Amino acid sequence: MRTLRPISELQARTERVLREKLGTTVRVEPGDNEVELLARSFDAVVQAFTEHQEALTKADAARKRQQDELEKTVAARTLEIEAANWMLSARERQTRSITELTSLLQTVRDLDEAVHVLPQFLEPLFAPHAGALYLARPPSLNSLDVMVRWGGASPRDNFSFSDCWALRRGETYGIDASGLACPHSADFPAPGGYLCVPMFSQGVTFGLLHLAYASQAEDSVSERERRDHARSVAEQLALALANLRLREALRDQALRDPLTGVFNRRFLEETLARELAHAAREARALSVLMIDVDHFKRFNDTHGHEAGDAMLRALGRTLTEGTRAGDIVCRFGGEEFAVVLPRATVDDAVIWAERLMRRIGATVVRVAGMALPRVTVSIGLACYPQDGSDIEGLMRAADMALYEAKRAGRDRIVSAAAIHRDGAEPALPLLSEASAPAETPPKAGGT
């Protein structure tokens, strides 16, 4: 009895654990005694605990897999966010660079100055890829000239619209390492392909942005971002450069004579003041030629105003082509022109005046297929500092010399220095016939 009672109690407790804790029971077989029932109960407990442990192990493994997947997802998402943040930062940098570039282009004086500014911005914007920027050549705008290049690029200096598929189609055109290439890109190696982006201003093709990629885009998204970035830059460049060219044109119109194309009197006064300041600072000479067409009213009355205008245009071209790059040719008024010769002494100015007289004398002007009679000019010259130390004094001296050339018989050169020295007819001689054997010199008086 003392043994069976503990077995009964143990059996009862075991069944209670099975029922309440493990959710199961032990099936009682006919003829089972308490020991056998207890043994089966223990077996059931062990099995239940084993199954429970296996379930816990599986659940733990599942949780671990879920955790691993979650960590991978978080890591991937983190990389995506970092990439997106990097891309956003890159775009912000690009936007700032573009904004800074367009702002700077609003302050440059002309396209020549812009040429020195643009590579400093465009190369970082498109690194590590090479590229070039072309502008349409006025007035026909059917060909382009390279404006700037960067990244070691050596594209053609110029080409026609028909040599670029983007210009012919009026939209962005690009290829990868293979594909139908534009003829103008034949000498422009691009291992990763290239992209041509037309630049438009008020519906007119203004230029072209050409990019030569060092490597291919990794995927379609990268390729799209490349194109979008290039288009954005091209749009801003087109707007800024078109405004710059317009400012140049307006400034040019304000400073040039509309008939002859040379500078006007306003520009002469502004430039001469600057050149005199340079001459004073550097202690160097500067000369001014005042040139007047002889008997121009008679020429106009005889041949008509159209012929007179044609003659003045030809005279403007002749003076521009016959002077140095740094010299300044202006129409002073009517048939009178002025030429500023920086760094020219009196002797230098006489030589230049003689050359110009010979060129003018050899100029043939045709109107309606008919050659007009050739004209002669009278030239008065003055030199800084001996003939005048400011604009008013120097121009007055040159004008007095011109008046003296007219009084002395026209078709000659007179210097202000000769007037002061001789007080008489001071027409300057031309170069000797030995120095110009093929030309007939104009009339000359004493120096």
A few lines on this structure:
This protein is α+β, with helices and mostly antiparallel strands. The protein has helices spanning 4-21, 34-105, 111-126, 165-169, 220-255, 265-282, 296-303, 305-321, 346-362, 391-407, 416-422; strands at 130-136, 143-150, 158-160, 173-175, 194-201, 204-212, 286-293, 328-333, 336-342, 366-367, 370-371, 377-384, 413-415, 427-428.
Task: Give your account of this protein's structure.
- The protein has 447 residues and is of the alpha+beta class.
- It folds into three domains: 4-70; 106-255, GAF domain (Beta-Lactamase, 2-Layer Sandwich); 265-428, Alpha-Beta Plaits (2-Layer Sandwich).
- 52% of the residues lie in helices and 17% in strands.
- The strands form three sheets. A six-stranded antiparallel β-sheet has the order 3-2-1-6-5-4.
- Mean pLDDT is 82; it is low at 424-447.
- Average pLDDT, rounded to a whole number, is 82
Question: Helical segment tally?
Answer: 11
Number of strands: 14
Order of helices and strands: HHHEEEHEEEHHEHHEEHEEEHEHE
Instruction: Note the beta-strand portion.
Output: 15-25%
Radius of gyration: 46 Å
**Low-confidence parts, pLDDT < 50 over ≥5 residues?**
424-447
Helix content: 40-55%
